[in-house]
């Protein structure tokens, strides 16, 4: 059985950052799920802050430098994506959004994605459903039903990495692994509408 490739994106700005901590937790849970069935997995993690200048240059010139191009290729060729952003002003960070503005609009079509976010208070978790999940829906990615949010108190309590975060991460990881396996299986009796653009759907019905 071929090795699964999982790419992890963290948009945390600090060193270390809570976003990177959550990204690592999610990656660990996903790798563990694959290991249960003795499936090989390769995890590659990217810190978007290290590509901030390249992303900005790409936005104004339309050209991705070699370093950024390599990361974009890794994301596009991955079997699944784990993406974690801090929440600012009730939405994803500008750096997080900018990266997805410069990749090809079809790069994530049909790709399994596990989304996570961090914020100063639990109320920021609303951004997952009102801002972050819709972004990936627009890009036609297949997001897990479970998304994972971590506030500062999650890390400092008994319910942190050994409790609620770990449980949510395990549930989300199980869903991501299921999506990866489903994506790899031959499609029978499906029209593939879920990963078609609106223009493609219109063309398929002869509009």
Could you explain how this protein is built, in words?
There is one protein chain. Helix 1 (18-36) packs across helix 7 (160-184) and helix 2 crosses helix 4 (94-102). The N and C termini lie far apart (42 Å). It is built from 8 helices and 7 strands, in the order E-H-E-H-H-E-E-H-E-H-E-E-H-H-H. The longest helix has 25 residues, at 160-184. Strands 1, 2, 3, 4, 5, 6 and 7 form a 7-stranded mixed β-sheet that branches. The radius of gyration is 17 Å and the shape is globular. It is α/β, with parallel strands linked by helices and 207 residues long. Strand 1, helix 1 and strand 2 (41-47) form a beta-alpha-beta unit. Helices cover 48% and strands 18% of the residues.
What is the number of helices? 8
Overall pLDDT score = 88
- Helix fraction by DSSP (H/I, runs of at least 4): 40-55%
Given the helix and strand composition, which structural class is it?
Answer: alpha/beta
List how many beta strands DSSP finds.
7
Give the uncertain stretches in residue-range form: 188-193
Element order: H for helix, E for strand: EHEHHEEHEHEEHHH
What kind of sheet is the major sheet? 7 strands, mixed
Please give the radius of gyration in angstroms.
Answer: 17 Å
Q: How much beta, percentage-wise? A: 15-25%
Per the principal axes of the C-alpha atoms, what is the gross shape?
Answer: globular
- Cα end-to-end separation: 42 Å
């Amino acid at each position: 059985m071929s090795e699964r490739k999982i790419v992890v994106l963290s948009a945390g700005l600090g060193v270390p950052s809570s976003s990177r901590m959550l990204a690592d937790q999610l990656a660990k849970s996903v790798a563990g799920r694959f290991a249960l069935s003795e499936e090989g997995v390769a995890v590659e993690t990217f810190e978007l802050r290290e590509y901030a200048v390249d992303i900005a240059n790409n936005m104004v010139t339309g050209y991705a430098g070699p370093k950024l191009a390599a990361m974009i290729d890794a994301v596009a060729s991955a079997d699944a994506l784990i993406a974690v952003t801090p929440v600012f002003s009730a939405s994803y960070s500008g750096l997080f959004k900018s990266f997805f503005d410069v990749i090809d609009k079809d790069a994530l079509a049909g790709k399994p994605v596990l989304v996570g976010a961090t914020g100063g208070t639990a109320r920021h978790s609303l951004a997952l459903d009102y801002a972050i999940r819709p972004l990936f829906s627009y890009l036609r990615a297949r997001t897990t039903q479970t998304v994972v949010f971590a506030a500062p108190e999650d890390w400092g309590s008994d319910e942190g990495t050994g409790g609620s975060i770990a449980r949510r991460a395990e549930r989300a990881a199980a869903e991501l692994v299921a999506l990866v396996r489903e994506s790899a299986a031959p499609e029978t009796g499906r029209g593939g509408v879920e990963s078609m653009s609106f223009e493609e759907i219109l063309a398929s019905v002869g509009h």
